[in-house]
């Protein structure tokens, strides 16, 4: 679900907490719901109608979380993502992130790809030239 991660994201970034607004469509016995969420003055809207208000709010939170996280990653590529991910995982009680790195050889060079596991979810980073860079990039994807 996405409401709690969005709320955590806003606390970490020290921005206003999400505010949800929902609209109902259809007859009372067959209502569908569509939500939007406002985060730090920016509005994000779910793309589909859902069967319940809760589902609609999660759909809007997902749109917001993805948009905000991608924007934040694009703005700052020099952050210590391994440390940030470790701190976030510990703060949320997920345990320490676990990294696995594979190495392949291509035309006289080694290529590293890392995967990090946090709370049972695996995140794979892009191909890298060093093991450290591969792990940092995987942490960035997970964060």
TrEMBL record:
InterPro entries assigned to the protein according to its UniProt record, in alphabetical order: dsRBD_dom
Taxonomy, superkingdom: Eukaryota
Every DRBM domain range: 1-70, 80-143
Pfam families cross-referenced by the UniProt entry: dsrm
SUPFAM superfamilies given in the database record: dsRNA-binding domain-like (SSF54768)
Gene Ontology MF terms in the entry: RNA binding
UniProt keyword annotations, A-Z: Repeat, RNA-binding
Record-linked PANTHER family: DOUBLE-STRANDED RNA-BINDING PROTEIN 4, PTHR46031
UniProt protein name: Double-stranded RNA-binding domain
Lineage of the species this protein comes from: Eukaryota, Viridiplantae, Streptophyta, Embryophyta, Tracheophyta
């Amino acid at each position: 679900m996405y409401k709690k991660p969005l709320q955590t994201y806003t606390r970490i970034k020290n921005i206003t907490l999400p505010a949800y607004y929902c609209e109902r469509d259809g007859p009372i016995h067959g209502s569908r719901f569509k939500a939007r969420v406002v985060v730090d003055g920016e509005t994000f809207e779910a793309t589909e109608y859902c069967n319940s208000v809760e589902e609609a709010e999660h759909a809007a939170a997902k749109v917001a979380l993805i948009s905000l996280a991608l924007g934040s990653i694009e703005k700052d590529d020099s952050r210590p993502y391994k440390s940030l991910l470790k701190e976030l995982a510990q703060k949320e009680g997920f345990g320490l992130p676990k990294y696995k790195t594979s190495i392949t050889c291509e035309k006289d060079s080694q290529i590293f790809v890392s995967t990090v596991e946090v709370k049972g979810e695996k995140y794979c980073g892009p191909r890298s030239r060093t093991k450290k860079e591969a792990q940092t990039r995987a942490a960035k994807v997970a964060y």
